[in-house]
Amino acid sequence: MNPQAKLIFTISLMLGTTITISSHHWVMAWAGLEINTLAILPLISKSHHPRAIEAATKYFLTQSAASALILFSSMTNAWHTGQWDITQMTHPTSSLILTSAIAMKLGLVPFHFWYPEVLQGSPLTTGLLLSTIMKLPPITLLFMTSPSLNPTLLTTMAILSTALGGWMGLNQTQIRKILAFSSISHLGWMAIILVYNPKLTLLNFYLYTLMTAAVFLTLNSMKVLKLTTLMTAWTKTPSLNAMLLLTLLSLAGLPPLTGFLPKWLIIQELTKQDMAPTATIISLLSLLGLFFYLRLAYCTTITLPPHTTNHMKQWHTNKPTNVLIAILTTMSITLLPMAPMIFTII
């Protein structure tokens, strides 16, 4: 892709995200979401492969429908209340439509069908954007409207997302699809606590972004897309493989790694809200996701020889990328042991 075009699309992504997260009017938030959608489409389809074109088409149709529902819900709320402010979403029907629309944008169950297919058809760097930056504006909208959202609907969608994200990821061999179902499962944890403690949702999202960025950048550095390719990585890049192993275990939520911190706090908050059965259910369902994380981690420790000479070339990486991966991985591993000290300072 032309560097100037890539720069324009990147600036547009940052602009659209900034407009949405800083706006108070629904029309401005909708405009930011549309800018984001139009900016990411060329990045999804830049390989001109039929699968990439299909992924871009699916993404465009889904996001357009979700944006239209967001605009419709805001207009309905303005019709009944006379308010266009994002924080004044008080009409029940409008809140219901808005929750469905944002769930469609994020890929929450039952609006998750597009997400694994789009991520599978995208390059790893674009997949990183889809899994992190593109989720920030919808989550921000949920954060600002959280007092008026329906707790029962969000809890149901969260439990279904955690269950389906873990269940569907069990039989996948494509790493991008595994990470897509992982994202769906993590979104369930974010959604279940949104009404009761929105700050925990943001903390979960920030730590998920940190760990996912480390995983995607490591996989992109090693040019790994399938489990069979991952099995040949140990002999070529042992240090990257070791960091990937620890980051995957952190993403799974194993203590004492960073990924356990948001789950620990969410379970604690749900217990305080007299929702111990719900906390137990979502904790047990997350064990499904833990299984395929452990399978990924196991594949990083298997040593198989590369098959061809061309296969050997893919392990060359540049030093700046490795430094960034090392920093992200270190944070993905050590934030939980440091948490008591951080909370004491705060």
Automatic annotation (TrEMBL):
It catalyses: a ubiquinone + NADH + 5 H(+)(in) = a ubiquinol + NAD(+) + 4 H(+)(out). Keywords: Electron transport, Membrane, Mitochondrion, Mitochondrion inner membrane, NAD, Respiratory chain, Translocase, Transmembrane, Transmembrane helix, Transport, Ubiquinone. One of its GO terms (biological process) is mitochondrial electron transport, NADH to ubiquinone. Residues 23-288 form the NADH:quinone oxidoreductase/Mrp antiporter transmembrane domain. GO terms for molecular function: NADH dehydrogenase (ubiquinone) activity. It holds the Pfam family NADH_dehy_S2_C. Core subunit of the mitochondrial membrane respiratory chain NADH dehydrogenase (Complex I) which catalyzes electron transfer from NADH through the respiratory chain, using ubiquinone as an electron acceptor. Essential for the catalytic activity and assembly of complex I. This is NADH-ubiquinone oxidoreductase chain 2.
